[in-house]
Amino acid sequence: MALIVAKFGGTSVASPERIKMVALRLIRMKQAGDHPVAVVSAMGKTTDELVGLAKALSNNPPAREMDRLLSTGEQVSMTLLAMAIEAMGHRAMSFTGRQAGIFTDTEHSKAKITLVHAGRITGAVADGIIPVIAGFQGVDKDEDVTTLGRGGSDTTAVAVAYGIGADVCEIYSDVDGVYSADPRVAPRARKLDVVNYDDMLELSSSGAGVLQSRAVEFARKYGVVIHSRSAFSDAPGTLVKEADPEMEQAVITGIAHDTSEVKVTIRDAQDRPGIAARVFSALANNNVNVDMIIQNISEDGRTDISFTCPAADLGRASGTIEGILEKVGAREYSVDENIAKVSVVGTGMKSTPGVTGRAFSALADNNVNILLISTSPIRLSVVVSADQGELAVRCLHTAFGLDSESIFEEKMLSAEELAAKKSKGR
Amino acid sequence: MALIVAKFGGTSVASPERIKMVALRLIRMKQAGDHPVAVVSAMGKTTDELVGLAKALSNNPPAREMDRLLSTGEQVSMTLLAMAIEAMGHRAMSFTGRQAGIFTDTEHSKAKITLVHAGRITGAVADGIIPVIAGFQGVDKDEDVTTLGRGGSDTTAVAVAYGIGADVCEIYSDVDGVYSADPRVAPRARKLDVVNYDDMLELSSSGAGVLQSRAVEFARKYGVVIHSRSAFSDAPGTLVKEADPEMEQAVITGIAHDTSEVKVTIRDAQDRPGIAARVFSALANNNVNVDMIIQNISEDGRTDISFTCPAADLGRASGTIEGILEKVGAREYSVDENIAKVSVVGTGMKSTPGVTGRAFSALADNNVNILLISTSPIRLSVVVSADQGELAVRCLHTAFGLDSESIFEEKMLSAEELAAKKSKGR
Question: Could you tell me if B240 and B183 are in contact, meaning their C-beta atoms sit under 8 angstroms apart?
Fold first, then answer.
């Protein structure tokens, strides 16, 4: 008899038919003796449609209004799911972020949860009711609705799981767990049974889309066990939890890749103290999320500075660089939009020398040209040209012994499931 | 410099283009030195679409969930209008019913306002902000969203006007005021400059759709002046306010008609005490809204009982009558769906004898056959067959001297406006 938070994404509640499937799953959980608490995203493309309406009226909609507007999407899906459960003869009640006790700071569109006061949810569960909570939203001290940013519903689910002391936070999506690499790219990728928080956080922030890194961060901080699993099957997925010291860790957990960044290079900047600070303060002031930074060896007092950032930030990044090019004494700058970042992730890396060497050898053997390198204690990332990205994933996956014996497509997925995966992204 | 509540219905905010027009109107008010406070309905067909989604999931959706679901419609339009105003360089903020301080009882789908605590709205106005309030909704003591029933946004507007002490509550719609009759039916109908609360209440509850009777009731109770006017022009509309004792009242203010009711007749029921009570208690218990009741003169201890009710209640009415037919000793019942109720309304009726006679003569002169009659101190209603309804409106309009000198269509409306009226209803 477990207390279970079950989060369903937009695809899982995209239509009345799918909402009924989710309702059935929750009822089955209840019939099995568990206590489910649902968290839902907005239906399918609702959020995009609302953004479209806002853009028709304003180039720069006030963040407070935008948050309230977007929050209606989850409020629609939560009421519909509650209705579906009631129509099947079980008790359900919907709760907004406010009603579920999700309090945040005032940073509209990317609010951080400051307090979870889930007494009303606990009370509903005690009364035999299945609570259905709107993901992605909370309220600030003025009771104004705030939203938690991209993937915020995962964060809501983890926060609620913490707030009610749930045994597990199940995140249902259209993939059946966390893989050692994206199976669309690496057919021999394996589903992982368990991943520790640190590895999951690096995988998520390096492009593995299955779980949002903020949710993983929250789970790590408060020790919430996440179960990432498929909305379309009953097969167990991947548990994300504290590393078990008893268990031997693989050196490398998985290979992530990310094609959503671009590379910007400032050529022949002056190589003197303060130049990098000037460049990257200016970028930060203009809300450019800089990821990797590389400064080449100086020649004749001149140097090249490269950085990567999300493609969505490129406009702001270019504007910033144009504005300071002269001030840093640089000649010109260039942009490379055709790049892929490939990351080797594993907590075991810390205690195992030679990972870097093995990675570079594997890439060299396959004639993959490395453009940039960055590392953390448990991650090694390389930027390569976009057309070599998938080859890089596959050869690193093989080099670190992650390949399963059979090819993924044949073993794990029906043709239909694979098509669904290909169209929806990991 | 007036404090003005301005309510815009679903048609006025049906698209981004129309929302911009509303934004411009509010800004013009502000530039003229007034303080506008907007109240909005949901965009166009939004409410119908949400109802459709709910029906796809449940035949009998829980009222609490339904209210929350429907309340999102107004929350979308309020944020979009606030964004539009801000995009035009003026300050605006949206407020839900809760945030505007609209507290209600717990009667979901037809909640009554119990308290208006509009301090946040007053504060916004003082800060130079144009508040935009979601109509149709409040919260109950559990902070669960409630809705105010059909036309509830008018009631919100009047309640807010009362709460902030506004000088006037402007209700914008696609008609330019209250008319002495529906101009589609009576081409010589005149727009009324002023109507007192009592007359307006009788007109609204007798089929004149321009203002919701609950809003008029609220306005009468708290002395809020309503200005019913067109969203598409700047021409003054109709003021609804306390009767001015100094001013001479016309005997008759207007003719209303209503084709949304049906007539049910129970034949040959026993004519003994308690029979009528039995019939109408049973109907009330089944939520049938009975309007007019007529019991014919008894013959041989037997009588016919007729009543009218909204066509929407007919299924429940028939079921009720079938269940008690034998108990009241009746032979059979019949239903007439082709009826029209035509009402002559005027406070002046109280002090002027002969209204009934003049009405019946006018109808007789035009060969209109009266099926049922009911009266109040300031209203005389007749039910006639549907095909004689419009004729009845016209001849009563003439008989009571309400005709204007020129024909309405030629004088007041462009062809386009008339087409809009015909397609949208009064």
Answer: no
Three-state SS for A58? coil
What is the distance, to the nearest Å, from the Cα of residue A137 to the centroid of all Cα atoms in its chain? 17
d(CA B413, CA A254): 72
CA–CA separation, B14 and B43 (whole Å): 4
Q: Which of A19, A79, A99 sits opposite B143 (nearest CB)?
A: A99
Q: Which value does ipTM take for this structure?
A: 0.82
**Per-position DSSP letters for B222-277, written without gaps between them:** HTPPEEEEETT--S--EEEE---TTSPPPS--EEEEE-SEEEEEEEEEE-STTHHH
CA atoms within 13 A on the CB side of B229: 20
Asked if A75's CB is within 8 angstroms of B72's CB, the reply is: yes
* Rounded Cα gap, residues B219 and B225, in angstroms: 7
Q: How many other β-carbons are positioned within 10 Å of the β-carbon of residue B241?
A: 18
Residue of A nearest to B57 (CA): A84
Residues constituting chain B: 426
At residue B164, what is the residue type?
Answer: I
Cβ A96 vs Cβ A39: under 8 Å: no
Angle B181-B408-B178 (CA atoms, 0-180°, nearest 5)? 40
Buried b / exposed e along B126-151 (16+ C-beta atoms within 10 A): eeebbbbbbbbbbbbeeebbbbbbeb
Specify whether the CB–CB gap between B6 and B26 falls below 8 A.
yes
Q: What is the pLDDT of residues B247-264, one digit of tens each?
A: 767 789 999 999 999 999
Its sign, for the CA torsion A319, A325, A328, A331, is positive
A37-85: pLDDT as tens digits: 999 999 999 999 999 999 999 999 999 999 999 999 999 999 999 999 9
Q: Do B83 and A93 touch (CB under 8 A)?
A: no
Residue A402 Cα to chain centre, angstroms: 22
Three-state DSSP string of A169-185: EEEEECCCCCECCCCCC
Asked if residues A210 and A192 have their Cβ atoms less than 8 Å apart, the reply is no
Question: In terms of Cα–Cα distance, which of A259, A266, A267 is closest to A283?
Answer: A266
* β partners of residue B7: B39, B171
Chain A nearest CA to B32, separation (Å):
24
B95 forms beta bridges with B133
Contact at 8 Å (CB) between A121 and A133? yes
Evaluate if residue A422 carries a pLDDT over 80: no
